[in-house]
Design goal:
Blueprint: H1 3-28, H2 52-62, H3 72-87, E1 92-100, H4 101-107, H5 118-125, E2 132-142, E3 150-156, H6 166-183, E4 191-197
Parallel strand pairs: 3-4
Antiparallel strand pairs: 1-2, 2-4
Helix pairs in contact: 2-6, 4-5
Length: 208
C-alpha cells in the first residue's frame, strides 16, 4: 500500500468519523423546537379552574432568557410577579437587602478569614466581579381570619448564569402565580403565603 493510498484512506476515515459524529449529534440534539401555539390569555379571560394556557404563557415569559442574581432580566421577572399580585387585588410584600460578599458568606455559614482576598470572597459568595449584591424577596399573603395556621409555598426567581431556568425554577414560579390566581378572593381554611425568594443559586441567600 503506497503513501497516496494511505492518505486517501486516512481522509476517508476522518470524513466517516465526522459524519458519524454529526449523525449522533443530530440524533440526540435535534435542534430548537418551535413554540407551542396557545391561545393568548389574560386574567380577564382565564378559566375559573386551572388554566394551563395561562400557566404556559407565564412560563414562556419567565423563562425567555437567563435571569441570574442581580441582572436586569431578573428584575423584570420580579416586577412581573409584583404586577400580577396587584392585578389580582393583592398586596405584595417586597423585601430588598444589599449584601457584601462577607455578609453573603456569613449567611451561608462560611467564615471569611483575613487571609482571603476580596476577589476570592466575591467568587466564593457567587458575586463574580461585583462588590455587593441586591436581593429581592417577594411575599404575597392571603389571610384566613379564623386561624393562625399558615401554609407557605416557595419558589426562587433566579437562575444559574447561562440558563433560562425553565425547570429550575421558572416552572415553579409560574405554578405559584396560577395558584395565587385561583386562591385570591376565596374563603380559606388556613393562611397562605406565596414566597418568591432571590439568590438561591448562590447559596440559598434569599431563603436564609
Amino acid at each position: 500500500m503506497n503513501r497516496i493510498t494511505i492518505k486517501i484512506l486516512s481522509v476517508l476515515l476522518c470524513l466517516a468519523l465526522l459524519a458519524g459524529g454529526y449523525a449522533g449529534y443530530a440524533l440526540f440534539f435535534p435542534g430548537e423546537t418551535p413554540p407551542i401555539a396557545v391561545e393568548e390569555k389574560s386574567l380577564q379571560n382565564a378559566d375559573e379552574s386551572l388554566d394551563t394556557s395561562l400557566l404556559w404563557q407565564d412560563l414562556q415569559r419567565i423563562a425567555a432568557q437567563p435571569h441570574k442574581v442581580g441582572s436586569d432580566a431578573l428584575a423584570q421577572v420580579q416586577d412581573s410577579i409584583i404586577e400580577r399580585a396587584k392585578a389580582l387585588g393583592l398586596k405584595p410584600i417586597v423585601e430588598q437587602s444589599t449584601l457584601t460578599a462577607v455578609e453573603a458568606l456569613a449567611l451561608r455559614g462560611i467564615i471569611a478569614t483575613s487571609e482571603t482576598t476580596p476577589e476570592a470572597m466575591r467568587q466564593s459568595a457567587g458575586f463574580g466581579e461585583n462588590d455587593s449584591l441586591r436581593l429581592t424577596n417577594i411575599g404575597v399573603f392571603l389571610d384566613a381570619p379564623q386561624t393562625e395556621e399558615c401554609v407557605i409555598f416557595m419558589a426562587h426567581t433566579d437562575t444559574v448564569p447561562n440558563s433560562p431556568g425553565a425547570f429550575d425554577n421558572s416552572l415553579s414560579v409560574a405554578s405559584l402565580l396560577e395558584s395565587m390566581r385561583l386562591l385570591a378572593g376565596k374563603a380559606l381554611q388556613r393562611d397562605v403565603l406565596f414566597l418568591f425568594t432571590d439568590g438561591e443559586e448562590i447559596g440559598l441567600l434569599g431563603a436564609r
